């Protein structure tokens, strides 16, 4: 990993306000188009609680629930540097310690929780 880079995994839940209303698990965007931001946040908070309490594994949850194509890698986005991700996502990731999981992060893509892995 290059100097100044971080590595992270995330779980993305898309909603009606997302800029692209389709995903690998909802190619037509039917579920996404009827999901409010509030219900996306509620779902993500429940998933986060399960992970933080030790009932679930972050990468397993990402594989099942994330609307990002990184789901097939357990949510792993690989290494990235400043300026490569949407600003709120980047800032949240850089603010985390390795192994720490963010609160809800809003971007144009939807709502995320982020786990810094490197």
TrEMBL record:
GO molecular function: peptidyl-prolyl cis-trans isomerase activity
Family affiliation: Belongs to the PpiC/parvulin rotamase family.
Keywords: Isomerase, Rotamase
Gene3D superfamilies registered for this protein in UniProt: 3.10.50.40
Top-level taxon: Eukaryota
Short name of one Pfam family: Rotamase
SUPFAM superfamilies listed in its UniProt record: FKBP-like
Residue stretches making up the PpiC domain: 3-118
Transmembrane segments: none
Protein name: Peptidyl-prolyl cis-trans isomerase
Ranges of Basic residues composition bias in the record: 12-22
Residue ranges, annotated region (Disordered): 1-33
EC numbers: 5.2.1.8
Role description: Prolyl cis/trans isomerase with specificity for phospho-Ser-Pro bonds.
Lineage of the organism: Eukaryota, Viridiplantae, Streptophyta, Embryophyta, Tracheophyta
PANTHER family named among the record's database cross-references: PEPTIDYL-PROLYL CIS-TRANS ISOMERASE (PTHR10657), PEPTIDYL-PROLYL CIS-TRANS ISOMERASE-RELATED (PTHR10657:SF4)
UniProt key word Isomerase: yes
Entries under PROSITE patterns matching the protein: PPIC_PPIASE_1 (PS01096), PPIC_PPIASE_2 (PS50198)
Annotated GO CC locations: cytosol; nucleus
Tagged with keyword Isomerase: yes
Catalyses which reaction(s): [protein]-peptidylproline (omega=180) = [protein]-peptidylproline (omega=0)
InterPro entries: PPIase_dom_sf (IPR046357), PPIase_Pin1 (IPR051370), PPIase_PpiC (IPR000297), PPIase_PpiC_CS (IPR023058)
């Amino acid at each position: 990993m290059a100097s100044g880079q971080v590595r992270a995994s995330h779980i993305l839940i898309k909603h009606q306000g997302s800029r692209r209303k389709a995903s690998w698990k909802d190619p037509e965007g039917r579920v996404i188009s009827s999901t409010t931001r509030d219900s996306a946040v509620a779902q993500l908070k429940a998933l986060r609680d399960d992970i933080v309490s030790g009932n679930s594994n972050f990468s397993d949850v990402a594989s099942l629930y994330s609307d990002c194509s990184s789901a097939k890698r357990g949510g792993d986005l690989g290494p990235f540097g400043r300026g490569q991700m949407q600003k709120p996502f980047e800032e949240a990731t850089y603010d985390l310690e390795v192994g720490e999981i963010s609160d809800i992060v809003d971007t144009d893509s939807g709502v995320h929780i982020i786990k810094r892995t490197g």
